[in-house]
Design brief:
Bound molecules: nicotinamide-adenine-dinucleotide
Radius of gyration: 20 Å
Distance between the termini: 7 Å
Low-confidence stretches: none
Length: 384
Amino acid sequence: MIVEPKVKGFICTTAHPEGCRESVRRQIAYCKSKGMVEGPKKVLVIGSSTGYGLASRIAVTYGYGADTIGVSFEKEAKGKRTATAGWYNTKAFEQIAAEDGYYAKSFNGDGFSKEMKDEVIRTIKNDWGQADMVIYSMAAPRRTMPDGTKVSSVLKTVGEEFTNKTIDLRTNEITEVTVPVANDEEIKDTIKVMGGEDWEDWIRAMADAGVLAEGATTVAYSYIGPVVTHPIYKDGSIGQAKKHLYDTSVKLTKEFADKNLKAYISVNKALVTQSSAAIPIVPLYISLVYKVMKEAGLHEGCIEQMQRLFTEKLPKNEVDEAGRFRLDDWELREDVQEKIASVWDKVTTENIKEYGDIDGYWEDFYQMFGFRYDNVDYSADVEI
Ligand code: NAD
């Protein structure tokens, strides 16, 4: 079948198997070029198929020489419908990692569920005995609770509504958006989906089953961003969940002190992923960040960020005053943010290409689904 991109709103409903393989191949090549350091050897990655989780899996495999188990929630191909990008990424990663001599097993299903936790724990017990690192990189719109009820996360403000510029990704038009206020129920639910509860459940279940190694490390991802996005991100409903995630890191380190567990938050850079494209205002900010950071020679994608986290920041334990790894250090540099602030008010539909890296945004967007790689033949028939 010839696979073409079909973009609907902020997602693409098709994915290209060869392009996804190319994306994985390039990320692996990057990590191989950077070399290895001493580190954990048995790593569980929850949310391992795309974005920061996939990059983490690649970074620990090729940065530590680690075996990995990955958990993600992806769809396989059906009839003429392609699989999701995360499904192709996972297949490509497993195959290349195996060729390079690494153990890489993946589970596809609901990471929130007890069944998935049991299955993964059984596999760790049988295949490894114990895991010495757990990376939690799940980003989900909803969660099925143990009693079967479903809760959804929302991207709203807390306190008062917020109006600012945004970009309409269908037309590249700069418009205004008013982000509504989340009610208490919505905030509670967002915390349930994107906060630390499920991370804690994983760690507790693993510790109870005896599959968490003494002195293990666990890390989950967060975002802070500049003042202009605070009402929708840091201080919004998602930010409340991220606060909970941080509090969970403190709680886990304290509670599992006897096992010498170290639980961390890594605050990462704003990047185009399937999750970030859905947040109002953020895609416009990302296009400005890309422009400024590329011009300053500071731009990084998920793989550069995760390679830096696992082979530099983490081994050196380079944390901020709150104990967090700061991979947003370059994004939040004063000179970078000053430049962005100076153009934020000026940017319009007419000049967005001058101030923002719209082409870079879209290149990352398409490449997330395996399209627009210059060395992939998109006119060729592929097995989906
Ligand atoms: P992503 O959408 O690329 O990845 C999400 C992953 O979660 C995928 O592997 C997906 O399969 C998996 N997943 C979703 N629901 C699942 C479920 N029910 N069971 C199992 N797996 C499930 O997202 P991302 O942007 O890489 O986000 C990962 C983390 O990084 C999130 O915590 C996010 O808040 C954080 N982060 C993202 C950015 C950014 O700009 N993208 C910046 C900083 C921090």
